[in-house]
Design goal:
- By secondary structure, the chain is an alpha/beta fold.
- Helix content is 25%, strand content 18%.
- The protein folds into three domains: 373 residues, TIM Barrel (Alpha-Beta Barrel), CATH 3.20.20.80; 53 residues, Oligo-1,6-glucosidase, Domain 2 (Oligo-1,6-glucosidase, domain 2); 83 residues, Golgi alpha-mannosidase II (Immunoglobulin-like, Sandwich), CATH 2.60.40.1180.
- The strands form five sheets. The chain has an eight-stranded parallel beta barrel with strand order 1-2-3-7-8-9-10-14, surrounded by four helices. A five-stranded antiparallel sheet has the order 15-16-17-22-19.
- The longest helix has 17 residues.
- One of its GO terms (biological process) is carbohydrate metabolic process.
- This is Alpha amylase catalytic region.
Length: 552
């Protein structure tokens, strides 16, 4: 596991320890339980697992309200359990990425408690304060439905503190060099425990103006704000040469290349632009959104890579769509009760909900995902078609426990359902008795098997990450074929990935300058006919097929 370029075409599986697998029957997932399920990740062929926050926390924001950066919440295990999990994952060739929340802490973090108690304490300047809130910088909070602004009053300190997220999550003053050193030490700590890299939560808000005077990192000893992340990269690579930093930077498309720092800051970024467009396009049976996403994205070749995804553990954020499509998506994908819409930007629905439980459409979406240049992130449960529970508050709707089999609580826990961190879905079309991993594991036509096959196909096709990418002109707006040329001389190959998003049969003819005798089906059930110089794809509804041949 010393390949420094492993992340260029990685498959990353996202899970929450709290809802993945419970080993001791208390209703909470834990690291021991996650160890028991590593075979599932191995079978899926994932290269890395991204673990969402597991640190001590009051859990008012699913663990993104961190109370201690250097511990494990006792309900989820111990530091020894984390190290054991990392060791067992490494034995399978799976790297471990942890989620670090450096924009803010919980108001129960010791730093904030000491900051409130003593204005002369060094910790007071770990946060941002004002005694004149009417004159202070103000703007819309990131959670506008729940927070009136970015200032909240603390009685102990007798001041207002700055927070871009919930009021119980005070922003850290990253302009303070002492705070930055604390964060660098946290990176070193988790690398020492066995982590291989980090998802840095809220990277964009970290760089936004903060505090009474709307100060930024431009006002510090850093040459420019991106140096914060450049220094993080220096820290992690000094400890482990193949460690990576993955940014959650949901910024405007024209600004996204900044987070790579000319190849010296983040290695990877989540591709929110492609996420909104790809998932929308598959849902509305049209390929123009993919073309638009690729036009919007900056060229980052040579400096970093995208991590593409269909859904994540938050709302499906639609802000990157054009206004007409944004308005359409709000109604088109919304639930009948009208309560899936949140934060005025997206739906708190899973992929299966967006596609009405159609496993064929979910599968073709995954085929597009796996065949795009870059890396891939999978949301735990999407590989089997789990749905959302809209009776749960806010984002918790898409954070229900993994459904392993048809036993009580879907095999997640032996506890009473009322004792589970979140209840398992036990009613409707997405109930665990209908949707679970055990029922799909040995069925070659199941969604799980198709996602597993796509993951293996991607591993077999280095052209996707390292070849030359192009788009043949399509005959239909519902079909998409993209091409990769890879290799040199006699070893040069062409990979064609064809997809039909339509509700009916389509034929698509494209050039295929390969030796017809060398053409092979890599994955997918779509039909095709190869002739000299071209190929005709014969695609039923939601069909896909990848073909590879040796170039003449």
């Amino acid at each position: 596991m010393s390949d420094r370029d492993w992340y260029e075409d990685a498959t990353i599986y996202s899970l929450d320890i709290k809802t993945f697998n419970d080993s001791d029957g208390d209703g909470w997932g834990d690291f021991r339980g996650a160890i028991e399920r590593l075979d599932h990740l191995d079978d899926l062929g994932v290269d890395a697992v991204w673990i969402r926050p597991f640190y001590p926390s009051p859990l008012r924001d699913n663990g993104y309200d961190v109370a201690d950066y250097r511990g494990v919440d006792e309900r989820l295990g111990t530091l020894d359990d984390f190290r054991e999990f990392a060791d067992r994952a490494h034995e399978r060739g799976i790297r471990v990425l942890t989620d670090l929340v450096f924009n803010h802490t919980s108001n129960e973090h010791e730093w904030f408690q000491r900051a409130c108690e003593d204005p002369e304490s060094e910790y007071h300047d770990y946060y941002l304060w004002t005694s004149h809130v009417d004159d202070a910088h103000n703007r819309q909070n990131i959670f506008p439905e729940y927070e009136d602004g970015v200032w909240s009053y603390d009685e102990t300190a007798d001041k207002h503190y700055f927070h871009q997220f919930y009021g119980h999550q005070p922003d850290l003053n990253v302009a303070n060099p002492a705070v930055r050193e604390e964060l660098y030490d946290v990176l070193r700590f988790w690398l020492d425990q066995g982590a291989d890299g980090f998802r840095i939560d809220a990277a964009h808000p970290m760089l936004l103006p903060k505090g009474h005077n709307a100060s930024t990192l431009h006002d510090t000893d850093l040459d420019e704000p991106i140096d914060l992340f450049k220094r993080m990269r220096e820290v992690v690579e000094a400890e482990q040469s193949d460690a990576v930093l993955l940014a959650e930077a949901d910024d405007e498309p024209e600004n996204l290349d900044y987070y790579f720092g000319d190849g010296e800051a983040f290695h990877l970024q989540f591709n929110f632009v492609m996420n909104a467009h790809l998932t929308y396009g598959v849902g509305v049976t049209d390929t123009w959104p993919l073309d638009r996403a690729e036009e919007l994205l900056p060229d980052v070749s040579g400096v970093g890579g995208w991590v593409n995804f269909l859904r994540n553990h938050d709302e499906w954020n639609l802000l990157k769509l054009p206004q007409e499509s944004f308005d359409h998506a709000r109604e088109y994908f919304g639930d009948d009760a009208g309560n899936s819409w949140i934060f005025e930007r997206g739906h708190r629905l899973r992929l299966a909900d967006l596609y009405a439980g159609d496993h064929d459409r979910i599968a073709v979406a995954h085929s597009l995902l796996f065949s795009l240049p870059g890396s891939v992130a999978l949301q735990s449960g999407d590989e089997i078609g789990m749905g959302a529970d809209l009776s749960l508050p806010e984002r918790e709707a898409v954070r229900t426990p993994m459904q392993w089999d048809d036993s009580a609580n879907g095999g997640f826990s032996t506890a009473n359902q009322d004792d589970c961190y979140n209840p398992v879905i036990d009613e409707g079309e997405y109930a665990y008795e209908r949707i679970n991993a055990a029922a799909q594991r040995d069925d070659p036509d199941s969604l799980l098997s198709r996602v597993r096959d796509l993951s293996a196909a991607r591993d077999d096709c280095p052209a996707i990450a390292r070849g030359s990418y192009s788009l043949p002109e399509p005959d239909h707006k519902e079909t998409r074929v993209h091409r990769f040329d890879h290799g040199e001389g006699e070893s040069e190959t062409v990979l064609l990935c064809a997809h039909n998003l339509a509700d009916g049969y389509r034929e698509e003819v494209v050039g295929f300058d390969v030796d017809p005798d060398t053409v092979e089906r890599v994955v997918g059930d779509g039909g095709y006919h190869v002739a000299e110089g071209g190929v005709t794809f014969l695609l039923d509804e939601c069909d896909y097929v990848w073909l590879r041949g040796e170039k003449r």
